[in-house]
Each structure stands twice: as structure tokens, then as C-alpha cells.
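Subject: Sanity check before I submit

Could someone independently write out the C-alpha cells for this chain? I want to compare against mine line by line before I put it in a report. The sequence has 348 residues.
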Amino acid sequence: MKPILCFLAGFLAVSALVFGQEADETVEDSGFVIRTESNLVVVPLHVYRKKSSVNGLGKASFELYEDGVKQNIAFVEGPAGEGEPAEAGRTVPTEIIFLIDFSHSVMMKNLLDFTSIRETLLEGLRKDVLISVYGFAGSLKRFTGPTRDYKKLNRAIELAYESEAGGSRIYEAIIQTARDASTRGANVSRMMLVFSDGFSTTKLDPDIVVQVANAYSIPLYPVILGHDRIRDKLNRAGSRRSNRGIGPSRRPGGPLGGQSALRQQELRQAIFAEIGPKTGGQSFDPMVLNNLVIRKILRSLADLAATEYIVGYYPSSVDEELSPHQVQVRLADEKIGTLFGGQRTIVH
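---
Independent answer below. Compare away.
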């Protein structure tokens, strides 16, 4: 079996495993894979030159391939060139998904507030940039679908903080959220910001999450919660051993045992962080975690939404039996800059 077909088989097997489990009733079940047939396929990407966004590019600047075969590009939308309005010609909306871990107060009160979201993501961005809010512990809840309504978003954040439950099915929640968002249509650019400590209470392979996110073309942006506290504990443990001038205790509850547990927690957080760059996004692991730092993270996400390109095309053929296809966008000339993203797997 070819690697991509193995991927698809695993993709469908995981859907049965994950979504056969208990889930919040607000999350619909409408199928797992993206079927395009004659529908438009959109591929998001960014283009940079020396860390600055390259704006104003058109169809002539890009090439699109499906399974290595060049395709006709239907349209390109992206950041406006100099002198053009910010929303010039934009038809594909952007959905920024907030996925919040509310298991046992993982999300500190007031770390994320509506004012921060409004001032960084709503004010100044295009009017077609929408925000949805989900939360999870043992199951997933959708607090609001994509909206710019201030009252709905404010209430959604409040509900996320008011919720608390056991379990932390992080990777299942990411898959389920991506799946739910896809029921609202495939011709939307999406990015997902995931707030969690990374301590999943299940054993789902994070690489499956990466495959699913890439298939839905949703870059992930994990925000690591609690790593600063783990670092502080490790520093204090190391300082105590140094002051005593003796080797570490090997008792289960002694310094060495405690440090080992903390190192394991750091490893789990590192695995959680890795899903960001593996999906075309990035991870945020701040040394200090407060509302000011969260605002900086939201501003970086706003910059990504403002500088994003969308390349759309119609698949030239439809298989008799559904099969996966690799889609890749390239720059027509490497002198234009460096392309980030621009890849996805579709089924038709």
C-alpha cells in the first residue's frame, strides 16, 4: 500500500476511534474526509522576504501541482499591494479558532480576555476575519461558531472559564474541532490556537493530529500553559542540591525522583509544541505567561491573518473511487521570496 493510502486508512480508523467516544452534543457528525469533486479547493500560504511579507502577488507568481501535475489556478487572494485597500478583491473568509483546555483550571483566570481579542484580532483586521471558540476537558464544547459579534465572543470566553471537568483529551479535541469546523464549508481559511499544558490523558498519537490538520489545511498554534512553573520547580530543585553540596537523593519522592517527573512533563509539553511547525503553524512557549504575553501572541496571529495568501483551483478530474491527492503550491520564481505552507491533502 502506498504511503498516502496508508495515511488515509489510518485517518479513517482514527475517526472511528475518536468520534465513537462520548462528545458534546453541539458537535455534529457529518463525515470526516474532505470530498472535493468539482468544488473549489483553497490552499493557504505566506510569502516572506527577509522576514517581511511580500504583498500584492497575483496568479503569475504561483504554480500549483496536484500529485506533481501542474493545474490551472482559478484565483489568488492575498495581502493588498501598496495603495490598495486591505480588503481588495478578498472573497475567502478567515476563521481563527480558539481551542481552550478547561480541565482543572489549566487556563488561568483572565489570562485570555475578550478585550484582548477585540483589540488585537477584530479591530483593524478585515471584516471577513471571524472567531470561533471551543473548549475541552474530557469532551468538546463549542461555545460559539465563527462570529464578530462582541457579545457572543465575550460570553463564549466567560463560558470557557466557568467550565471545569476532569480529563484532558487534547489531541482528540483538536481533531474533533477541525472536523466540526469543516462542516461549515471547505472554502474558508482557518487557523487554530490551542491553549493547553500539553498533558493529554489519552494515548492518541500526536502525529495523527498533524496528518488530520494538514488534510484540513488548518495550521495549529499551541500555546504552552504551565511550562514556566515547571521551569521554576526545576531551578529550585537544582539550587537546593547545589546548596547542600551533596548528590541527589534516589528516593522516589526525593529530588532526583521529583526532577525526573518534571523532565517527563517537559517532554510531553515539547511533543505538544511540535504539532505547530509540523502543520505550518508555530508554537508559543513564553518564559513568563500573563495577559501582556497573550496579547503579543494574538497580535502575531493577526499579522498572519493579514498577510495570508489563498490560492484556489478546481480539480481537473474526479476518480471513480475516492482517493487522496497531494496538492502543493510553489513560487514561479524563487527570487520572489520564501513560501511557507501551501500544501494539503484532498480526496476526490
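---
OP: Matches mine. For the report I'm noting this point. The CA atoms of residues 266 and 314 lie 44 Å apart.
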